[in-house]
Structure formats: C-alpha cells, structure tokens
Amino acid sequence: MKLLVLCTGNSCRSQMAEGFLKYYAKEMDISLEVVSAGVQTDGLNPRAVVVMSEVGIDISEQTSDLVDQFLDSGVTHLFSVCDHAKESCPTFPEHVKRMHQSFPDPADARGTEQEILVAFRNIRDLICSFSKELLVSDFLSNKD
After folding, report:
1. Residues with Cβ < 8 Å from 141, sequence gap 6 or more?
2. Fewer Cβ atoms within 10 Å of its own Cβ: the N or the C terminal residue of the chain?
3. Is 128 a catalytic residue?
4. What whole-number distance in Å separates Cα of residue 38 and Cα of residue 45?
5. Confidence of residue 4 (pLDDT cuts 50, 70, 90)
6. Is 12 annotated in the active site?
C-alpha cells in the first residue's frame, strides 16, 4: 500500500502526518509506504520540525514535493489534510481510496514565538491522534 498525504503547501500539516504515519505504521507492523505532497511547495516549515522533534520524530530530512509527481507512482490511498488541497487535488485513478480530515494551518498562527509554537503543538497533537486512528481504521483495509 502507498498512502499520499496531501496539503496545500506540503510544509506543515502533511509533513507532520507523514512523520506520524511512518512512525506508527512501523510500530504497529503495518506494511505501508507513506509520502506527502502539496498542490504547491512551500518548503518544510522549521517549526514543524521543532515540534515533531519534541515527540521524538525527526522529519528534518523530508522534502516538500508537488502532488503531480505522485499521479502515476502507485498511490493506493489519498489522505487530504486541508480543504484547499481536497478541492485542488488533481484527478487520481478511481481505485485510489480517499479520506479527508481538515486541520487548521499552524502557519497562520500569530503572536510571540511561544504562542506560535503552542499553535503548532496543538495541531501536531490533533494530527497524531488522527494518524493513529487512521492506521487502525477500515480506510487502509481492502474493504470498500
């Protein structure tokens, strides 16, 4: 199975989801290739790297990629994490299973650095919980 996590800029939410899904799939012994992409590329957000490292997951080597490069790459499952990406997503083959869960964009947070990091941590924790649920859900099963 190959799961593509899709977001607008592939800089925060999809990157965190990719990190969690890889980590927990390995921990749960689930054979799953996880990649992430955006409808545009904004680069990996350094704050996302920081808050993920706080929970022991290193995403610093992940890259910000365009969704177009995954259109013919064997993706079997598509998980969109923001409304814009869901609406702007290119057409994948009909057999690709889709799931959507919108998370607020932590990059929109304003305030002091500490306040911004709190926003990133809050979204990180939401994505963490949802990632665990997704891995044990029927979404990844062969059932329709």
Report:
1. none
2. C
3. no
4. 13
5. very high
6. no
What confidence score (pLDDT) does residue 72 get?
86
Q: Which of 5, 7, 25, 48 is catalytic?
A: 7
Longest distance between any two alpha carbons in the chain, whole Å: 47
Sheet with 2-7: strands ordered across: 33-38, 2-7, 77-80, 97-100
Q: Which of 6, 21, 82, 123 is catalytic?
A: 82
| Domain boundaries defined on the chain | 2-137
Among the options 55, 66, 89, 118, which is catalytic?
A: 89
| 39-83 residue pLDDT tens | 999 999 999 999 999 999 999 999 999 999 998 899 999 999 988
Please, what is the angle between helix 13-27 and helix 113-136, to 10°? 40
